[in-house]
Amino acid sequence: MKSHTTYKKLIAKTVILSLLASLAVAFIYGVFIKKRAIDDLARVDARKTSRLAFEALYSAMEKGWSKEELDAIIVRLNKVEPNMRINAYRSPIVAALFGDREADKNIREHDSMVMSAMKGEEILTGDDEIRYLYPIVVNQECITCHTNAHVGDINGVIDVRFPVANLKISLTTMINSFIIFFVTFTIMIFAILYFRLNALLVQPINQFIGMIQEIISKNDMAKRVSLKTKILEVKNIESHFNKMLDSIQDYYEKLQELSDRDYLTGLYNRRKFEEFLTYEIKRSLRHHHQFTVLMIDLDNFKYINDTYGHASGDLVLKEVTSIFASNLRNADVLARLGGDEFAVLLPETPYENGYAVVEKLRSRLESTPISLMFDQITLTASFGIAEYPEQGENIESLLTGSDLAMYKAKRAGKNTIARADQSDQEMAAEIQKKGEFLRRAIDDDCVEPFAQPIYNIQTGELFGYEVLARIRDGKRYMAAGQFIEVAESLGFAPKIDQIILTKGLNARGHKGLWDKRFFFNLSTKSLFDGAYVNVIQAHYGKDPKQSNSGVSIEILEREAIHNVNGLMDIIEEMKKIGISFALDDFGSGFSSFVYLKYFDTDFVKIDGEFVKNIAVNEKDRIFVKHIHQIAKEFGKLTIAEYVEDEETLEVLKEIGVDYAQGFYYGRPEPLI
Q1: What is the pLDDT of residue 260?
Q2: What is the DSSP string of 254-323?
Q3: Are 656 and 628 in contact (CB under 8 A)?
Q4: Which residues, given as ranges, of the chain have pLDDT below 50?
Q5: Long-range contacts of 623-631, Cβ-Cβ distance < 8 Å, separation of 24 or more
Q6: How far apart are CA 596 and CA 636, in angstroms?
Q7: What pTM did the predictor assign?
Q8: Beta-carbon count within 10 A of 405 CB
Q9: CB 3.0-4.6 Å disulfide test: which of 15, 348, 589, 608 passes with 641?
């Protein structure tokens, strides 16, 4: 196992290393200065001293002093500087003329350096003690007295000795030496810091950045970072980053699964089913074989939800899934498109064989009882068949054909099988019939606003209402799900929106609910038409005491996906005049998180499919928790839908969700 060091230890080691290196440089430089002092400074000082000694002796000799008096001068000179010794030795030329001295003769014969100096060589030696031998060269003036000498001869040698410690170094030399040492030390410190930090810190960080860029560019969540470094902090960054990648990869895989699979039944969703269908079209085109697409819609499933509750409805969907799956081949693709609608792809299966499979599914579903609470129910479904390539050669035509066939089966009395017909006029007639019904409902003022209360989960106080469209048909009311698609396809949706918005706001003012927020659902055309703005502003003007607030528009993913940029501009403009927005059914589409990023909404309404089973389903609880946390990070309030019991409410309260609506708080009721 590699040992690692901390950043503090690295700095400490670097400083100590730099200090040791600088001390080594200082020592080497000190030796150099000392050598230079011996070679240069000592020579200058010794020559100067020798010259002074010679001049003193020469001055005395000019006056005719005896050799005893000259020795006395030498003694006095040695007293001037106690640590310095000066001696003068006669050469053989002087000894021959003025007489020799035994000491001088002994020195000349046994001291090799004196012998060299007598030949005219200037000598400087010594480590701890400096010895300088200065030869006295005969010049023209000396010949007057030294008649036996010639110019250039050596008359004697002055021997000067003193300790190295007595050398006097000039101030300039000291300053220059200090500057050189300081500059060298600084350069060395920075060089060591640069190379050490570059190798142990900068290079690993650059490597880290490069790996992150590679992960981003290749979208490779399986890749992990591995840094070559001895610094513990950098290694910890690597470890924590890899752990974060583990979490992201796990979350990404879960999201990928959610994007491919229906969370309730585990079946493929519409998007994945369309991928399989695209692949099968290409394969069939290449190999020239037929295949069949089935569209299945459960009969009277709304009755089960209304009678037994959504939890029981979910149980039924799972049982139906099991029945269908157990009667299909491994190669067949079963998908849940949404609600109680299923689809099946039968590869390499012509219509005749496909019809037999459908009849088997219909019969098994009809004959299999499903246990529900203290009761047993039997369920039927309507089946539509489309064959490739007879009923369609692309995805759109195949899905539309099987869908039309399924509606034909519904109209035929349910629990039946129908085949798509390209010239099917019955569906058009059905749509026209519904269109006439909507037109009469609008003309007869049968479009009514219903309101479902929204409560603050934490305080239990009433926060506001979601206003829903209903059509009065005799003594019963039709929910929006029964007519909204036809209304949008025939262009009646904006008119219905205008009626619900106007009646809803009038009821708010009439009942004095100015402190309650009202949420409205608008179609795509209404959103971009902008007529609703005048209605809302007129509503604000009815009570001058109230500020421009309290009205929110809910946005569905199917509205947002067609014009993201345009909707962003609308939200920005409407917020300036006090109209807020909410993302509805958040989490139902894989792109919901993208809209959270771009749309500046105030509220996020968590899709009820994730909420209704939160008390018993850990996955739903995790999903709601993360939606709430992400919404909070973006500064948005959360509203949970489909809250039908106290257990669900308690879980939402624990998570921290802000508001809730559902049967537990109240069903939609007429607002006027």
Answers
A1: 77
A2: HHHHHHHB-TTT--B-HHHHHHHHHHHHHHHHHHT--EEEEEEEETTHHHHHHHH-HHHHHHHHHHHHHH
A3: yes
A4: 1, 425, 590
A5: 623/263, 623/587, 624/652, 624/655, 624/657, 625/655, 627/586, 627/587, 628/655, 628/656, 628/657, 630/593, 630/596, 631/586, 631/596, 631/604
A6: 9
A7: 0.44
A8: 26
A9: 608
